[in-house]
Amino acid sequence: MIKLECPEGLVGEARRTWERIAQDLALIGKLKAGGKRDLAVYCEAHARWMDANRKLKVASRVMMIGGKNRANPLIKVGHDAVVVMLRMTRKLFLSPMSRGEDEK
User: Is residue 53 part of a domain?
Assistant: First the structure.
C-alpha cells in the first residue's frame, strides 16, 4: 500500500481530511507532482469550512458592525473555503464529473 505522509503543517480537521482521501488518490494514480500541495490546500479549506459552519450554528448570521446590520463574517469565510475546495476538487479529480465518470 502506498503511504503518503501528511505535511507537518496540517493539523486537526485538515489532517483528518488528508488521512481520509490521500491514500485513495494515490492508489487510483490521481495524485501527481504538485498534487500533494493541491491536496493540502483542499484539506485546509475543508477545515476552514467546517470550522465556520460549526461556529455559525451557535452564532447569529446577522451582526451589528459599525452601527449597521451586516452578515456575519463567518459566512464569507465559509463561502471562500467552498470556492477553494471546488477548484481543488477539479484539479485533484475528486468528483466523478472531473474524472469523466457518470454520477449515477
Answer: yes
Domain-embedded: residue 17:
no
- 1 with 23: CB under 8 angstroms? yes
- The rounded distance, in Å, linking the Cα atoms of 59 and 44 is 22
Does 54 map to a domain?
yes
Q: Each residue of 51-102: pLDDT tens digit?
A: 999 999 998 888 888 899 999 999 999 999 999 999 998 888 776 655 555 5
All three cell numbers of 6:
501528511
The separation between CA 94 and the C-alpha centre of its own chain, rounded to angstroms, equals: 11
Split into its structural domains, the chain has a count of 1
Largest pairwise CA distance in the chain:
58
How does pLDDT run across 8-23, given as a tens digit for each residue?
999 999 999 999 888 8
Dihedrals φ, ψ of 71, to 5°?
-65, 140
Within-domain flag for 14: no
